[in-house]
Amino acid sequence: MKRVYHLDLDKRQTRSARIALLPGDPGRSALIADAISRTFGRPWRPLASKREFTTCLARIGAAHILVTSTGIGGPSASIAVDELAQLGVTTFIRVGTTGAIQPWIKTGDCVVTTASVRLDGASTHYAPIEYPAVASQEITSALIAGAGEAGVKCHAGVTASSDTFYQGEERTDSFRRYILRRFRGSTEEWRSLHVLNYEMESATVLTLTASMGLKGGCVTGVVNRGAIGKITAEALKKGETNAITVAIRAAGLLVSVGNWLGQRSPR
Predict the structure, then answer these.
(1) Where residue 229 falls among pLDDT bands split at 50, 70, 90?
(2) Which residues contact residue 231 at a Cβ distance below 8 angstroms, ignoring those fewer than 6 apart?
(3) CATH no. for residue 205?
(4) Helices marked H in the chain — which ranges?
(5) Local structure of residue 265 (DSSP, 8 states)
(6) Which of 94, 155, 171, 249 is catalytic?
(7) 170 is catalytic
(8) What mean pLDDT is predicted for residues 13-42?
(9) Which of 18, 59, 94, 225 is catalytic?
(10) Average pLDDT of 76-98?
(11) From CA 42, how far away is CA 136, in angstroms rounded?
(12) Distance of alpha carbon 219 from alpha carbon 95, whole angstroms
């Protein structure tokens, strides 16, 4: 049986799972799987851990759910999505943290990404830059509904998804401090274009899934003010917890209407 190289998994291990939750941090894979177990009363177990990719298997009812970390940024996220698709996954939800750039979005709120500004490079290896990084309507609706069920304030809209944390998000607290001319004033420009937040993987995840006829979505918890804000332990915990809660509620809703989960989008 074929074993995908980077995730170190085969279809026998994944048990025909069609939904994958994708945190960036490998440490969050077990955290999310355990939260699924506590919410739906089914046991979970670790499957594999190699490099930045840690995968756990959980269950919602009769449906198996994979939780696979992607690491930071587009290149490693593209590997995770591609190899999970090879294993039969059709539905991908990125679960992460973010910096908000609009003043009305508060720490602990969640952003449900409807589409992403492609400030990455990895996605261009799958589709030209003119191709939109757009989320699945079904997943977006499930995430918004999940936030409502959980009582978590969420904002749906466009995300700026950058390859770099410091330069691409116009941060001045890096070692170099100098910002290249192409990024100076970029935060204000995105803000004026009604972009909600910065993060680092959604452009890749959404471009890959849409271009391959799969379904992708993204929910992130706000942990700081993008470009300038410090990340405190309290803010990180609140944003992380709320994003995980919303993603799990959404996964439960998707399982409950599972007639389309095993299908690719029509071409």
Answers:
(1) confident
(2) 223, 224
(3) 3.40.50.1580
(4) 11-14, 27-40, 74-86, 137-150, 186-192, 202-211, 233-256
(5) P
(6) 171
(7) no
(8) 98
(9) 225
(10) 98
(11) 27
(12) 5
Domain count, the chain: 1
Query: Is 125 part of the annotated catalytic residue set?
Result: no
State which amino acid sits at residue 95.
Answer: V
Structural domain includes residue 215: yes
Instruction: Give the pair of three-digit tokens for residue 49.
Output: 């851990």
Tokens 């490998």 identify what position? 26
Q: For this structure, is 201 an active site residue?
A: no
Confidence (pLDDT) at 73:
98
User: What is the structure's pLDDT at 266?
Assistant: 44
Q: What is the DSSP string of 239-251?
A: HHHHHHHHHHHHH
How much is the pLDDT for 264? 53
* Spatial contact of 19 and 252, defined as CB atoms under 8 Å apart: no
Structural domain harbouring 101 = 3-255
What is the spatial distance between Cα 49 and Cα 57, in angstroms, rounded to a whole number? 12
171 counts as catalytic: yes
One-letter identity of residue 131: Y
| CA distances (Å), origin 220, targets 30, 110, 124, 183 | 18, 5, 23, 23
Within-domain flag for 267 = no
13 within some domain: yes
Of 52, 59, 64, 83, which residue is the catalytic one?
83
Residue 57 belongs to a domain: yes
Cα gap 36→166, rounded to integer Å = 33
Q: Which of 3, 6, 42, 191 is catalytic?
A: 6
8 A C-beta contact, residue 39 and residue 30: no
Give the integer Cα–Cα distance in Å for 97 and 111: 9
Radius of gyration of the chain (CA): 17
The model's pTM is 0.95
